[in-house]
């Protein structure tokens, strides 16, 4: 990565951190935790969904409909039938653009087109379904893309490896990825759960596959089970992202 690219990326991150936000004062009587899966690899439901259900909670699956039924770096992606199944099971489907667009490269117009196309494709699977929440694929947005996407959803999520508390930005909520960098550091995971609980924050976990031999972007069933158990024991309400928005009275 060259010096100019790095400088541009740093500036992009500064801009999206500071501008184009939709601010909300998070002041609930308890903390929230949401579990989210990007791209919806099959094991996110067959294994991850089962673990959530065993703890009496549900998650959010961010779907790029053009990827359904195909291969991916985190394993086979769910089919349309499995999308319908997770909804029936009480989980939430969120938007991840139809073609898994890179927010640092695609234009705002391409993003809006891709969001509409994803809605249309998923409405064929589940008639009348509204997608309330969004996750930025890959590196996250430019400021222009953030501004274009925000108004379409109740909340949009990026990364950042921390939780949301106090004055939060609904157009770019932070999340903590469970992946090759973090999945073996249970102390750090426990710390972020405890800190968010103490500050009555909203901690959003993100991962991809949940597999005994996970991809770089996923985690093992044992890790996932431990994190879900810790979240449930922390006193936080564990809900899909859109359900948190509904409880907090957040419209789009
Ligand atoms: Zn993705």
Automatic annotation (TrEMBL):
Keywords of this entry: Signal
MF-aspect GO terms: hydrolase activity, acting on carbon-nitrogen (but not peptide) bonds
GO terms for biological process, alphabetical: carbohydrate metabolic process
Keyword match Disulfide bond: no
Keyword Signal: yes
Pfam families according to UniProt: Polysacc_deac_1 (PF01522)
Record domain NodB homology: where: 31-239
Protein name per Swiss-Prot or TrEMBL: Chitooligosaccharide deacetylase NodB
Organism, scientific name: Luteitalea pratensis
